[in-house]
Design goal:
Layout (H helix, E strand, L loop, with lengths): L1 H20 L5 H15 L2 H12 L12
Helix pairs in contact: 1-2
């Protein structure tokens, strides 16, 4: 379970970073695309957790604690 969580978070970070670095996307589109990515990869409670961790700059810390 921990390995699955870590793998999903890592994939999310990689995909999110690609979205953030895409110069063809406007800021609003990036936000929408990241929200859609989060919705595809995580359950509703996990989505809230991921968003909260991103807001406080602690997403990497999620790799060491299960959802």
């Amino acid at each position: 379970e921990q390995a699955d969580w870590d793998a999903r978070v890592l994939r999310y970070i990689e995909r999110r970073d690609r979205i953030l670095q895409d110069p063809r996307r406007a800021a609003a589109q990036r936000s929408l695309d990241i929200a859609a990515l989060r919705a595809r990869m995580f359950t509703t409670p996990e989505q809230r957790r991921i968003a909260s961790l991103e807001d406080i700059g602690q997403l990497q810390a999620a790799l060491s604690t299960p959802p």
